[in-house]
Amino acid sequence: MNIAAPTIHRIVNEPIPSNCFVVYNKAFGNECLIIDPGSNDEKDLVEYITQERLTPRYIILTHEHFDHCLGVNFLVAKYGVDIVCSEHCSVNIKSERLNNSYFYEDIRPFCINSKTISIESLGMKLLFGGTEMRFYSAPGHTDAGIIMTFGKNLFTGDTLLKGIKTFTKLRSGSNSKLRETISKIRGFQGLGYIVYPGHGDSFELDNYELDLSL
Prior knowledge:
alpha/beta, Metallo-beta-lactamase, Chain A, 6-stranded mixed sheet, single chain
C-alpha cells in the first residue's frame, strides 16, 4: 500500500527571515506539526492553518534562538499546543538572554515558560501522521540544537544552511562540535533526503558538498 507523502509548507518568519514549517498528512487526519514559529505576528501561519482546517498538535523547536521561537507563546495560548525540543533548549527558552531576544532592539524581550516535552524523554522519536520523526542532537550552532528526519525530509534548523557557513559565535557555539554534527549529517547522503533549513531554500542533500573546513 502506498502511503501519501506529507505536505511541508514553508512560512518565512518576521522580522528575521527564518523558516517556519507546517507539516501534515491529511491521509491520517488534520493534525499538524509546526517547526520553528519565529514571527512577531503569526497572522500568515494562523491564516494557513485556518485555510487548510488544520489542528496544531506539536511545536518543534530546532534550537532556542528567538527568531525560531518568537511565536510560541501566542500559539500555545491560541491552540494549547505542546512544545517539543531538546532538554538544553527547554532551559534556554526560559531566559530572554539565553534565547537572545534581550539583545535585539526591534522586538520586546520574552521568555517561554510553558511546559515542554524533551526529545530525550520521547526516546528521540515521535510517531506522527503515519511516519516516525527521528531526532538527533546537533551541537555546533548551539548546544541546544537538534536535527530531525521525517520520511526522506531532513530538518536542520541553523545547523546546515544552503551556501552559508553555520554561525558558531553565539553562546555555546563550537566549530569542533559542528564538525562532528556535519559528519553525522554526511551519513544521510546518498539516501535521497531533502533538507529543510532554518533559513533559505530547501535543497537535495545528495547534491550538496558538506564543508568540514571550519
